[in-house]
């Protein structure tokens, strides 16, 4: 028996070392993931004061009112430096995700990847008014970083939130009442509403098997996305119906729920 | 403009993945069904005196070998995909199987796979050899038994053994609780070496001390009444 006790202890010592390595890797990746998430969120918003979160967001966006056009220089410079920082953070993750570890720690990094996709796709949408493709996303990351279809899809869901904030701002700052006396939104304003509606119907058209990993995130994301699209539709409606009564420089309150504010 | 083909290709990827999961799931279901038979047979050990265990162990071995065939099928299919992507589909059933293998080995079965016939358990390498699968692969992305799975299986085995200690007494076997007690105390000492984080392994291994205590109580009751036969381990 004494012999087997020592045998067991030596076996478990090996296990301990292996598990320690695993936990260390895991923690390093979680830390990297958090840093990337924070940087991605900073891309368009200043999260320092949560209560004014959305106001700050809008104020920085209001400068970029035009879709499908290059961003103003100062914003390009800032986002470029953030993208570079994020990419170098992803690089620091590489030694820990070699071989089977690429998938082993997929979940530790996927939050960061989704945030990054959200920022990236918003940037892409603002400058081109199209959706960034998965291969374009992958090209923006080191080849070893795993970007799954799930991450991409969930990132696009989050993109609708950003588009909503942008759209509502753009709509209220738009020129409906002042320049075009006839009814209807300007082509640009209408574009984003149409895009969001199209995305909604495409999201809703996806069918996901019950056994698929996506299924656990899908319900919530779908709900939030539908809420965003509706907010924009209501905003568009409000602008058309009551737009002319608004004082110049008025901005909608985005902090509340879906119904008030327009 | 939203490009619809983006969503079309997402949908086809989603479908592809669901198909892989279905295929794996089908094998795992068979594995689970065989696993339930294995467990049912092994649980007869609780009511069988140790000198009559042979037929029970033989029958259990047969079921375990049937499960092994499913593992071979599973390995062939799983090897086509990244290991950790789908690992969750089978990990539970693989743990149950390893736990049955360990229990069967402890009770005296599967002798030819142990390093020496006196050993009370199979090492992770021996389990791998028996199932014909690699263990603890670190560089290669292929099907294998992970350390965590092996450890979780040992924990299930410990729980089952603590129950067996109680039932051995009912069968009039006063020596076995002492053997079980000393074995699971060794394993407990091993688990205490591990630095566990807040994960499933931590939660499950916290239960070992209760198993140890359960067996210690039995041994205490027996020794108090001078019921432990001379020559038993640690007696």
From TrEMBL, chain A:
One of its GO terms (molecular function) is sequence-specific DNA binding. It comes from the Eukaryota. Pfam families: Translin. The keyword Nucleus applies. Signal peptide: none annotated. InterPro entries: Translin_C, Translin_fam, Translin_N, Translin_sf. One of its GO terms (cellular component) is cytoplasm. CDD domains: TRAX. Keywords: Cytoplasm, Nucleus. The keyword Nucleus applies. It is found in: Cytoplasm; Nucleus. Belongs to the translin family. This is Translin. It comes from Aspergillus caelatus. The lineage of its organism: Eukaryota, Fungi, Dikarya, Ascomycota, Pezizomycotina.
TrEMBL record, chain B:
Keywords: Cytoplasm, DNA-binding, Nucleus, RNA-binding. It comes from the Eukaryota. GO terms for molecular function: RNA binding; sequence-specific DNA binding; single-stranded DNA binding. Its main location: cytoplasm. GO terms for cellular component: cytoplasm; nucleus. Pfam families: Translin (PF01997). Belongs to the translin family. PANTHER family: TRANSLIN AND TRANSLIN ASSOCIATED PROTEIN X. This is Recombination hotspot-binding protein (Translin). It comes from Aspergillus flavus.
